Amino acid sequence: MTSRIVIIPARGGSKRIPKKNIRDFLGKPIISYSIENAIKSDLFDEIHVSTDDDEIFSIVSDLGIKPKFKRSPRLSTDTVPIMDVLRDVQERYEKIELFFDEIWLLLPCTPLLEASDLISASDSFASTLNCKAMMSVGEYPAPIEWAFNMDNVSQMLFPVQDGFFTKPSQLLQKSFFDTGTFCIFTPEFLKGFKSNDSYKNFHGYLLPKHKAVDIDDIEDWIFAEYLYSATKDKYA
């Protein structure tokens, strides 16, 4: 039977949206949605919230998920790569003789996600041949070949080849982006991850448009609240 840990990274510092990870989202702390989905999925042997913040530690403990340890200050700055945080958690669990077949990253600001998405992604990870890393992705709403500079709309951001700008969108290859929602790793992949070279080994798990919202600023937050309110019954 596959053993899994899900790591929810939630440090205290957030500049664009103060206290973002525990800010009220339609009646409860936004991180609670990620925790509830992890619990409802019944996939995980361990749910660990990685935080350096006393208030976040207290809130998630009240939600029934008390972290075994806090994140160290050296891993709590703006510039620390998330993979370093995940590896630190992996190493600290292994020191107490807890090993897992899969290590999941679940972001704390993912209220549009559902437990069923995690279950479906787990099935996809298991059935994809030689898959060692998978990330949630969304489809760009318009072809990236159509992108241009805001100050000069005639200046395309990509080399103009084969008349891309005049082609109908359905004739262009679809492109995808990281939704900043979740990732799945084998422990061996996580240990061996080396900068950007390893990203070529990721497989994508496609989320529908109404769930592929990365909440980075207050405008994203308001949009996510609108989407949640508008879709939670329709897509339940």
Quick summary:
It is built from 6 helices and 10 strands. It has 236 residues and is of the alpha/beta class.
Helix % is 25-40%
Strand content: 15-25%
* Gross geometry: globular
Terminal Cα span? 29 Å
Summing up helix and strand content along with how strands pair, one would put the structural category as alpha/beta
Order of helices and strands: EEEHEHHEHEEEEHEH
Q: Report the mean per-residue pLDDT as an integer.
A: 89
| Annotation field: number of helices | 6
Uncertain segments are none
| Strand count | 10
Largest sheet: 6 strands, mixed
- The side-by-side strand order for the widest beta sheet comes to 4-1-5-9-6-10
Over the alpha carbons, how many angstroms does the gyration radius reach? 19 Å
Question: What would you call the quaternary organization?
Answer: single chain
What structural keywords apply?
two-stranded antiparallel ribbon, about 240 residues, alpha/beta
Report on this model:
The chain is built from 6 helices and 10 strands. With 236 residues, the protein is of the alpha/beta class. Helices cover 28% and strands 20% of the residues. 31% of the residues are buried. It has helices at residues 31-41, 54-62, 82-95, 115-127, 187-192, 218-231, and strands at residues 4-9, 24-25, 28-29, 46-50, 102-106, 133-139, 148-149, 152-156, 176-185, 203-206.
